[in-house]
Amino acid sequence: MNGFIAGHSYLVCSLAGTIVVTLLAWLTLARPQFVLTMLSGLIAVPAFVFCWFLEGDYWWPARVGGMRLGIEDAIVSFALSALAWYIVALVFGSRMHWRYLFRRSLARYLMAAAWPIAAFLLWAWLAPDAMTALLLAYASAGPVFLWLQRRLWPLVAAGAPLFGLAWFIYARACLWAFPDALQSWNLAGRWGVVVAGVPLGEIVWAICYGAYWPLFVGIVYEVTLQPWPGSPKAMRS
Fold first, then answer.
1. With CB atoms counted within 10 Å of each terminal CB, which end of the chain scores lower, N or C?
2. Taking all residues of the chain, what is their mean pLDDT, rounded to a whole number?
3. Would you tell me how many other CB atoms lie within 10 Å of the CB of residue 135?
């Protein structure tokens, strides 16, 4: 069993991250925000297929079955996207209102996903590596999402640094527990430079994703942000 765990650090860390963020959300958030945190994770799961592009170019973690994609990619997609929303839910909490109507939310999800997917596929063809293509896709879609939801800019301002920090702590903890896992990254690549024990690509990606993902969730579930209680805007409303 210890040999299996040591040889499958990606699976272990993905499961641990999912369990931790779910428990934290359950214990610290009001039920509406807990539900949205779980939905945030679930709607990201289909995106695990794009991990295929990162394999070999950015990293090559050991997966159960030894395939280019695995259950680990789906699990970590849930964990990281739930965590990205959990961060902003902690900060803004009851100020955020959202709406879930299955058909309407699904339609908005498909429309919101179309642009970043198209941008990523384009950049995957043009960019020198897959991580650069992913970051450029966020840079292509993020400003459009922000323009459509200009009142959600505080989520971007909070999400980028806080999720960046949270993901750094998570990645650092995983690499502390499994130091050999660092060799899973392409350390000779442009994003493989190790900064404070974590590959640069993970740090830059987390900052960008922390800004991008709350806007994506905001579109899908029609999130609105109410003024702070006692503020002039709140008193006028």
1. N
2. 93
3. 21
What integer pLDDT is reported at residue 230 of this predicted model? 55
- Whole-number pLDDT of residue 227: 83
81/39 Cα distance (integer angstroms): 9
- What pLDDT, on a 0 to 100 scale, did the predictor assign at position 231? 54
Question: How many independent structural domains does the chain possess?
Answer: 1
Check: CB of residue 134 under 8 Å from CB of residue 205: yes
**What contacts 23, CB < 8 A, 6 or more positions away?**
none
Q: What is the dihedral of CA 84, 168, 26, 34, to 10 degrees?
A: 0
Q: Is 71 exposed, middle or buried (0-12, 13-18, 19+ CB in 10 A)?
A: middle
Tokens 């993902």 belong to residue:
213
Q: Among candidates 120, 147, 115, which has minimal Cα distance to 135?
A: 120
Q: How distant, in Å, are the alpha carbons of 27, 51, 77 from that of 120?
A: 36, 12, 17
- Using 70 as the pLDDT threshold, list the residues of the chain that sit under it: 1-3, 228-237
SS3 at position 60: coil
CB atoms within 10 A of CB 96: 23
* pLDDT value, residue 66: 83
Q: Is the dihedral of CA 171, 8, 134, 55 positive or negative?
A: positive
Predicted confidence at residue 7, as pLDDT, reads: 78
Q: Find the domain containing 229 and state its range.
A: 2-236
